[in-house]
Amino acid sequence: MSQMQRFKTHCMATQFRLTIPQGDQRDNGLIAEEMFDELRRLELLLSRFAPGAEIKRLNDAGLNQQVKVEPELFAVLEDCLKWNALTSGFFNPSYMSPNTDFQQVLTLDSTSGTATINFEESMIDLGGYGKGYALDRLNRIAQKYGLESALLDFGGSSLLSIGFAPERPWQARVEFTELQFAFQNEAVASSVLSNKPSGTVDIVDPVGGKPPQPLAITVVGPQALNTEVVATTAVAMGEERFREWFLYTDDARLAGMRFVTFDPTNPPAQPAWTNRNDV
């Protein structure tokens, strides 16, 4: 039986864990260190907390200030605007202004390479998007080294599997339930919205401005970024509206996905999967 090597670091306010079967001709420590270097680079691009980070610099610039940003961040923000449009505004990474139209919160100028925040107290918070983006970037490093088996884990809620675990597929469990499932060369993203004892919630319906109903979702799909955006969108939309959007929206980024949703206050033992290919 193959021995597992495990590496971990703290990045993007989350514990990141890397599990790789030990290989005779491969330096897993070298692969892990290159991945950790990439995570540190991305934290300085995408974090709204890290001193000197590009997103923090944009947020700190204040109202109506054109800020020159790195081309990579510019492309990320463009993609966020596209996802916002595709989800009718429900994917909204503008922290502190969840019921404000993200298309109006952020202005991008491709000629000058600048980004401008247009609403007072609005901030960009890439959150799960950033973790999904990071996992897809780390997958490129794995491919560079010809890595055939690994599990990348961001705090248990964002996972990416490469190949098989030794002798069997990688396994994950849907939070709050007894449902376990196998996944291979796929990403897993989980998001939960539940009313807190104080009556406050972390997510607000960006269209209606009201807290959605409690919802838990686990999404499995080919790319980490896309699964993260879909999971975030689901808890903002609510189950019925999300299910209709997911099944009938014609967009290649949703291909190959499946999900389970349920009420986290009364979870079933074995929730049923809904597959994009069912339509």
Mean pLDDT: 90
Portion in beta strands: 15-25%
* Largest sheet strand order: 1-2-8-9-12-13-14-15
How many distinct beta strands? 15
Biggest sheet statistics = 8 strands, antiparallel
Shape: globular
Structural class: alpha+beta
Series of H and E elements: EEHHEHEHEEEHEEEEEEHHEE
> Percent range for helical residues?
25-40%
Alpha-carbon Rg, integer: 19 Å
Structural features, described:
The chain has 279 residues and is an alpha+beta fold. Helices cover 32% and strands 25% of the residues. The protein is built from 7 helices and 15 strands. The strands form 4 sheets. The protein has an 8-stranded antiparallel β-sheet with strand order 1-2-8-9-12-13-14-15. A 3-stranded antiparallel β-sheet has the order 3-6-5. Strands 4-7 form a two-stranded antiparallel ribbon. Strand 8 and strand 9 form a beta hairpin. Helix 1 runs antiparallel to helix 5, helix 5 (127-144) runs antiparallel to helix 6 (224-237) and helix 6 (224-237) crosses helix 7 (239-248). It is globular. The termini are far apart.
